[in-house]
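pinning this so it doesn't scroll away 📌
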Amino acid sequence: MRQAIINGRVIDPAQNIDKITNLYLSRGRIAGIGDQPPEGFSADKEIDATGKWILPGLVDLQARLGEPGSHYAGTIASETQAAVAGGITSICCPPDTSPVNDSQAVTELLQRRARQAATAFVMPIGALTQALKGERLSSIYALKQAGCVALSQANHPIQNSLTLKNALEYSASHDIVVMLRSENTQLKNQGVAHSGAVSTRLGLPEIPPSAETTALARDLILVEEAGIRAHFSQLSCARSVEMMAEAKKRGLPVTCDVAVHQLHLSEMDVLGFNSLFHVSPPLRSMQDKQALLNGLKTGVIDAVVSDHTPLNKDDKLLPFGESMTGISGLETLLPLLLKLVNDYGLDLMTAVRSVTQNPADILGIQTGSLKDNQSADFCILDPHGYWTLDPEKMVSEGKNTPFKGWEFMGTVEQTFFQGRPVYRNSALK
């Protein structure tokens, strides 16, 4: 089937395109962009996108999808539906599933369930060590052969420096990206909130910034020794941004991301003991939040992730320190980014690049752009669509969001995956 999306504002950082023009699709792939259709092209269907934006399908480097296992809400079918409702068509699934994704069998199960859902492209991330225990290395070659796009420890960083050194060197020999979450568990010391005035006032166990920065310093040194492409996940501290800037300046092959909620929330939001604000890494100071935003603006931070963690209602009804960490974030990734553009001076092209071209480049995959002959994954957005977040109306099975009642400008009207419409806003006639 051939389709033409006409008169939309096409925004594609990968090709440095931001203009009102037409997008042409043929047999599930991009056939071209321009005012005139490609030679011999005749559309079977035409969609008028006047006044709308056309964005490449978003690429989320960190989103839990509920399967396999029982400690998260939802399924791959439900959570990929939530993803496309937010304009996301490519999703990285971290290995902290149950059982852990440290074998070909679990990787293939994830891929099979994703193919059955046929809603979005799910990319498994393999566990760096068996059962994420940080002791014995996984079968890295087998995981890569099975289709893992990267390796990670999720939220279970390796504490033994020798084990991490061996893991990085072995991964480097197989030319696979390693995603590192830097955290020193001894300095974290079972803390639950940022070390500052708020945690002191509330009597919550503290997590100092040094729990992240000391581990990051060690990790950067080992990455340099191993000569591996490393991606640092979920930075939360101002000093971490400085350290990444220094590492990039010295030519290390490193990239990094930040969870979108860290760009909007701070330790001040924890004052009400509301467990919906309990995340890992914790919400930091206002200065840290500003430094993270500046890092995104200047290109030190490459990507923004949802860190989607769909939880059952009971998991957040416990007292703050006993509740599970995480936010259901797939449906708020793009709205929160656009809020940074509208309210905090973030450049639109930089914002879109952080969730399309850059994450795709980090993984070395052919997605996140509207280049000719690539899979036709994109969303149509009404930039003036005004709406208020109601958790009960979220598509995700996890309703655990701290953004209840927030007002957003920008509505995803339709999402296409491989040229097929996989989401249509119910408000549309």
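📌 and the second one:
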Amino acid sequence: MNSLALVSLIVLVAVILIGFFRKVNVGLVAILAVTIFGMFIGQSDSKTIGGFSASLFIMLLGVSFLCSVAISNGSLELMSKKFLKLSGGHAIVAPILIYLIGAGIAAIGPGCVPALGIVAALSLPLGKSTGYNSVMLALVGEIGSFAGRFSPITPESVLIRSLAEPQGISGYQLPLIIYALITTIVLSIVVFFVFKSHKVQTTRMEAEELPKFSLHQILTLLGFVVVIVACAFFKRNVGLISFAVGIFLILIKAADEKVVFKTISWSTLLMVTGFGMLMEAVINVGGVELLSNALASIMTPRTAVAIQGLTAGLMSWFSSAIGVVWPTLVPTVGDIAAKVGVSANGLISIMALTAAFAGLSPASTGGGLIMAANATDPEFTKEKENKLFVQLFGVSALMLVIIVAAALLGLYSIL
């Protein structure tokens, strides 16, 4: 066994644990760790810095920049409210609409996090106006965002693609989207019945007077169309095109530049790129190969996908999917697929889904946003807060169990 490879994995685990227990951005901890580890193994500073992926940073920042424009000028929020109004007041369709809002907002570029925040914020007033449990609505909306987050132009897809392509893996995108769509629809239905929503006596939603889209908001939404067309049909870089559209919108005063920069999640960008620097060092000394060998040693063709999914889900309970779980596990897919004799498509799809659904835990972003949204309700007592914490963790665990069980049945090895 390569001792340096083992040390690198120990450093990797330590970084995740320190970030979790000290409540510090794991990207910052990773930069500290790779600086020390680099000196320990005699690696030059220039090679350590070379682990910072400038192309990934530009792609993530570009998409975040454009999405921040849309968030700051209210385009996405107003679009989602108008979408809800399409029901004509029929409360029974509210869960379907909030699922579609979560999926749609995530898919057009922002990815999961902005969509999570919007549906969580919408769930409380929507619950009061329809009679449905607001937590159920928030969960269904967030699950919808898990379907949309794997469209080709989201930060999540950009990251996974950047990790998969160096291994020669390229055919996973369509299977992942299909698996995500089916899984999220089925589990949304499960959540609907878990909360006994079929027994709720719904009330007709009151019509809300909404303002018309301003010219700047219309241009912002058209900007997303430009990005999608440019990337899908002309193979342009999603980061650069998003930057170009976002800068154009800033120039025409569609949003305030200072507000836009404040809206960008710089901590997430640092988390992904900082952890990536550490992962590059771990890969160079054979740590990922050692990890993939260890996983492969306990896998069979029947259990490989399920074990990969369970590993990703458990990791995601304690760390970020996009910042830690996928950068750690996606690089192992090529080796595991070759050694165990399973499809790389299934391995990538299952880890993408379990890591996402584990995020419904109150210790993660999805569950945390639901907690925060409900905390704005004057009737939200400490007792209700404690109950909701346990409830969200239970839902997260249930979702993880269902997905892993489906993997054991071979349902993620079909495509």
